[in-house]
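Re: glycinamide ribonucleotide structure - here you go.
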Amino acid sequence: MDEVVFRSPRKKGRIAVLLSGRGSNFMAIREAVHRGAINAEIALVLGNKAEAPGLLKAREWGLETVFLDPKAFASRDDYDRAVIGELDKRRIDLVCLAGYMRVLTPALCDAYRHRLVNIHPALLPAFPGLHVQQKAIDWGVRFSGCTVHFVAAEVDMGPIILQACVPVLQDDTEDALAARILVEEHRIYPEAVRLYFEGRLEVRGRRVFVLGLGA
Ligand code: GAR
């Protein structure tokens, strides 16, 4: 078996959520933190869109928020350097991408290697990228779902932490399938974050083992 390259820490963690829009996954994580299911606090919600509903909600809830305007930076490298600065300043243990629609630079991926996770609305490695629910319908796959994974430099890749499956129905529309998948996203994203801070995620090669599940 591949050797262990990473084991998640068992500690009270400091989470940053990065988002661009609605923020329903952020809200699911926040709800799990709130009821004590996740041993962590949300120390930062950072957005790249001033009016993102998720960012506005975070502010309303009294969480620390930062809006970084992409137009204020000369390059993606400069932008992500500023993101790293905001994360480092708050000693963030885990960055959760939650509908954050920017491709991360290798510098950010490297700086937060194994401390950066994402949710994607498909069963990776099938259907990376955008409009993936429509792509699943167009391909005629019988099942789709969602994936929580560690972020590596390639888009929507990196070791898979949890997945959940939903059926694709014959008369599905993009919206109907997206809604069915979203229910599962809200279940497995908080679950993955919980496992992370229980010190139960072990990365070997490109596989993630969940410790304490039995053989
Ligand atoms: C979610 O469906 C998430 O999986 C997807 O964006 C949506 C954000 O919704 N992310 C990606 O497609 C990343 N490649 P939310 O803002 O309500 O959490």
